[in-house]
Amino acid sequence: MESTSRPGQRFLPTRWTVILAAGRQSSAQAQEALSILCRTYWQPIYAYVRHKGHSPPDAEDLTQEFFSRLLQKHYLAGLQREGGRFRSFLLAAVNGFLANEWDKARAQKRGGGQKMLSIDRDTAESRYHLEPAHELTPERIYERQWAQALLDQVLKRLGEEYRQAGKTALFEKLSASLSQPRGAVPYAQIAREMDSTEAAIKMAVQRLRARYRELLRAEIAETVASPAEVEDEIRFLFSTFLP
Amino acid sequence: MNEIHKCPQCGNELPANTPSSACPRCLLQVGLGSQPDAGGGTAPMAPKHQAPDLEEVRKLFPQLEILELLGQGGMGVVYKARQPNLDRLVALKLLPADSARDAAFAERFAREARALARLNHPNVVAVHDFGQIQGLCYLLMEYVDGANLRQVELQGRLTAKEALRIVPDICEALQYAHDQGIVHRDIKPENILLDKGGRVKIADFGLAKLLGKGDRDRTLTAERQVMGTPHYMAPEQVERPLEVDHRADIYSLGVVFYEMLTGELPLGKFAPPSQKVQVDVRLDEVVLRALVKEPERRYQHASEVKSDVETIATTPGTAPPAAEVLQAQAWEAARRQVRPAGTGLLVTGILNWALIVVYSLIGAYVFANLKPGQGMTSFVLAMLVAVVSSSLMILGGIRMRSLESYRLAVAGAVLSLVISPGNLVGLPIGIWALAVLSRPQVRQVFKQAPPSAAARLSLANAALAAPVPGASARGWFFGVAAVVVGGLACWSFSRSLRSLSA
Questions:
Q1: Could you tell me the residue range of the domain that residue A186 belongs to?
Q2: Which end of chain A is more exposed for a tag (fewer CB within 10 A), N or C?
Q3: Would you say the ipTM is above 0.95?
Q4: Which of A138, A155, A141 is closest to A40 using CA atoms?
């Protein structure tokens, strides 16, 4: 009776598993999945390229060129089936691109290729400078920016859900509490401001937090090959911020 | 460049313009679940991608006898259960736990479920009850003993006849729900159930909307799509999810229908079903009209699809088979190409005739008054040849226009190259006609019989001629002959003129 019944399959296909599964065949679905992932995670690539010493206009061109090449069919064909994470794949791909393709790309007329991203240079630059510690390696910058892009995406979705439910004000009041330890959240103060009770705010914070964690896990799941890796990926990204 | 301050919680360095709530390290830490009091409170269990244990479900629903797990997917988990007091089998659907957490969802869920429970139709899976238990949304539904359309398709048990029986039932269910203002949004073979008696039952009405599979914001939609069933979605569901209405279901129905008939999805530039498999060609139009990209050009009501399919299923296939229609189309296309050139030949021939009359009058005057007897024979001969060839040109033009005789058409064209009013009109027209006649699709059509009566009905043409085998070879023969005759005519004509002037 059930519709999408697939007993035995515990982990629903995610973007990255769709891409991996497509392998050499490079299906339209895989292409679509890849392009969605690329739109979410172009900023880390930009930051990485910038930190490799390219000027803002060069970094922008390189990022565009890199993604447009990545989305060409043959690129996916080289993918190996045995897994890995999308984050590592993208970094390896951009390294390969910078090493081999950059000269060729430069020889071509600049900007002649199709632009798949709308890079707003000011935004890209300001986001790049979000990273204060410039003594970090480009790889570390990339990883931190990756975490940032991931969190942005999760918060955007979370905010969108609240907006759709008509609770934008609540979200704005509560979102600061997401990163606070429980004792630090000024429940009473928020309750006064929202004209609500402390218990209700406590409950709302709890829900927000629970939903945030789910969305975070779901978003990470899109980029890894198996559910077991989700926790590990959070741990890894967290560790990139440790001194 | 940027001022740096520290996150008050973890001491992580942050640029000045970043609020501490955006500290990525803290946010990730929350995600890690390393804080013992984070989350959890409202979630008795977290099935996520995993079905809850049977025992757990039994504890949650003591009033039901939970029998077995039927399946799980993006829309939740379904158990087969029995209601002992009513002694009936039911299907218990638990929605994904991650959607149940916020109050807004609970509210929407209650609203949607009430609307679904009001759907009372033999082709719609009935919703008996719904609710929330420990933060978990559930639906208690009619149990359908059978298989879904996907399973039936995979077993290869589906014939075109069977498809024609199933589609009207789907249409009826859709029309009924659309009349109640409910759009399914996720019509696909997995949601179309067939019970043991072969009755069609559509499941999961409106759940796509509830779970954000159909609309909601783009990112969420996109994510679910990749995981789910983008191939069955109407283009506007992907492009303008907020504008989706019941016509999206009609598109999805078109995809399901196409797949039932051909076993393939209508991807890219796809062929109509009758070109892939042997089905009534009239179904092409139905399927294609359901699959039109623009909702306003699509079928506007499921009931229209139903009546069209039923008409086709109950009336004998009077429409000509596809091949014949294609042939008729090719015939018509060739005729359109050939017509102007044929008319050109015709006009040239008539012009020649008119000139022959003028020449003959002049010749008669010259021979009667100025040079009686001298060179008259060759002049008359030339005129006769011109008369014959002009007549041939006219005839060739007529037969060319109706695609009847390749030989005469070629002969007429060649003659017009050679003999025509000073060759000024005839030369370009002759070349044009020959160029048109040498096109392979035109030559091909000359060999065919004109379309059959049935095919002609739609094309409104009644030309009748037997097929002309080897038309092109003979056409060349006639062409060469015409050149010889034409050359002869020219020669005699110039001789007679010379004799006149002498």
A1: 15-239
A2: C
A3: no
A4: A155
